[in-house]
Amino acid sequence: MAKSSNLLLCLSVFIFIITKLALAQTCSNYKFSSKNLFESCNDLHVLDSFIHYTYNSSSGNLQVAYRHTDLTSKKWVAWAVNPTSTGMVGAQAIVASPQPDGSVRAYTSPVSSYQTSLQEGDLSFNVSELSAAYQNNEMIIFATLTLPVSNGGNINTVWQDGSLSGNNLLPHPTSGNNIRSVSTLNLLSAASGGGGAGAGDSKLGLQVSSWAGNQPGFSLALTVLLVSLPSALQQFNFLWYKLGVCSVFKTQTRAQVNIYHHTIGYTVIILAVVNVFKGLDILSPE
Ligand SMILES: *[C@@H]1O[C@H](CO)[C@@H](O)[C@H](O)[C@H]1NC(C)=O
Ligand SMILES: *[C@@H]1O[C@H](CO)[C@@H](O)[C@H](O)[C@H]1NC(C)=O
After folding, report:
1. pTM of this prediction?
2. Within a domain: residue 236?
3. Which of 56, 60, 153, 252 fits 148 for a cystine, CB–CB 3.0-4.6 Å?
4. Which atom of ligand 2 is nearest to the CA of 126?
5. Does the Cβ of 258 fall within 6 Å of ligand 1?
6. Which domain holds residue 276?
7. Strands 168-169, 138-146: parallel, antiparallel or unpaired by DSSP?
8. With a 6 A CB cut-off, is 174 part of the ligand 1 pocket?
9. Per-residue pLDDT tens for 132-156?
10. What is the number of structural domains in the chain?
11. Pocket test for ligand 2, best of 126, 127, 130 (most atoms within 8 A of CB)
């Protein structure tokens, strides 16, 4: 009796953790509505922001989509590359500013001092296909930047949000997350640093989720499970050992625990292999 209610508790904890992780917003499970597909993405560590991009190192063309979610009030947002420094001064920004008529103005603005009002101007590199859209509390800016490879593919990036007064952009807050919104992006390795929570395997994530997109239901659930399982197991183990929540497992012998671990491990590997081959199959349909 005690054992089975314990088991139930353990299962609920486990399912709760998996659900929580699966529902956490990450860039790799975001689906763009139309033609815009990007090879890589990063979850930026502050300001509910994500950067999606495709880089062609021979042409130097960087196609980006910067997304800022959870915008509960009208705000301007900006994403910038800083070719000369790591902070705000020198940043070459693409800006999106909501207009009173509901449209969004997208433009470029080079930042030469802290006193900027983000006035429009040409950047130090070429920008094309610039546009922005606001929907469901989310702003997206699309642009193609011409950035020949330098510095091993590393670029310094900055992003921001701030309030509006009519059509005027007010300065962004100068504390909290608004001064932590810098990170280094490596265009060649698809990894980010500089305090950013990099999504190391975002490329794989995109492939897996785009495949899952063709097979709704089961495979999506499988993908979500595969992605969340290792970290869910880690958190579960933490509760299990440190808090003693799941004493039903604790009373088992070490050997039984090992068998349990190995079984889960092998199942995950087998599912992952099946997933990859099913995925490849669909990608090359002959
Ligand atoms: C990358 O750019 C080069 C040079 O402009 C071009 O020939 C090539 O097709 C591009 N690659 C992709 C994948 O678009
Ligand atoms: C931008 O592109 C134009 C041609 O499309 C070229 O003449 C110009 O040099 C480029 N500017 C920079 C800064 O690369």
Report:
1. 0.65
2. yes
3. 60
4. 1
5. no
6. 2-24+215-283
7. unpaired
8. no
9. 999 999 999 999 999 999 999 999 9
10. 2
11. 126
